[in-house]
Request: fold
Amino acid sequence: MPAEPTILAFACQCCACSAADAAGALHLEYPAAVRIIRLPCAGRVDTAQIMLALESGADAVMVAGCPEGDCHFVDGNARAAGRVRSLQELLAEVGLDPERLSIVHVASRDGAGFAHAASEATERAKALGPNPLCSDAWTGEAP
Amino acid sequence: MIVANRKSIPELIGMIERHSRVLLLGCGTCVTVCLAGGEREVNILGSALRIALRLRGRGEVVIDECTVERQCESAFIDLVAPRIADYDAICSFGCGAGVQMLAEYFPTTPVYPGLNTQFIGVLQSQGVWTEKCSGCGNCRLGEYAGVCPLTRCAKRLLNGPCGGSHDGRCEVGKDRDCAWQLIYDRCLALGTLDRVMDAIAAPQDWSTGGDASPRCVVREDQVIEGRKSGGK
Reply:
């Protein structure tokens, strides 16, 4: 069984992915639990894919976009934020903790910001415990 | 378009949990445009219902999704019909017409409505749909400069305004425009104010509207002999 939660990060290539690269260049550590899926824009994130990720056992999903008001595609990050809010309501309706889904905004050079967001998402996922839909739940113990 | 919104998850669960295999059937026309029952919405609802059922200890219920171009035409249902034998029930994410079309098409399969059908309307702004037409069967928009008092006036006044309008808003709710203010403004712009404000409109002929339900439209030149059905 894995010792860490699984967190999927749908990250825009303009800012969030660059910030993740910057975190690496700065030799900043962030939890390996966060798996990045690169998107052309946070606004490309598909709500059905987020639901499928949670249904398939991801402990948390993080959408990472450009800072508010600074989207390379005008308002993709605002659209993503709207979808996240709407899905959080749906998660509450189905009985899954809405905190399993979050959105963060980071600038392309903000490696520390991305590392912090990734750590925070991991801590939040650990506090929530394993996804109740996952049969191969993480243990919280080292393998 | 026909505008609808989805039922709550508990209501949907209540309808389908007694079955073991359920097909969520989306519709690719009106309810896709109003983001209620198209392919994407049905996929999201499929995940949501599977999650909800698993959390309630009913993970054995199979929920699959499929979307047809239009549920209100049997030619499109024909395409999905061979799959229906695999399911105990269908939850339709079409409008009320789609649900009933499916119920007629599959007489031995329970069909449930996944949506609450609301009205015939337009996309007013992104994410906002408003009602514009009551389907009265006797359109008088030409008399009212293109604004329907039957649908948009809370009192359905054909000889308005009522006197309850304030700053262009209806006294029934400050969130809605006074239809008669809209009619007045538009007539003023068109230079036809006297035609509406000085005239007394004849009563509406309700025999063509909801009072005549269920209604049927027949285009004889399009009917193929032997296939004609419906009607009063």
User: Anything to note?
Assistant: The first helix of chain A runs from residue 16 to 25. Chain A has a mean pLDDT of 92.
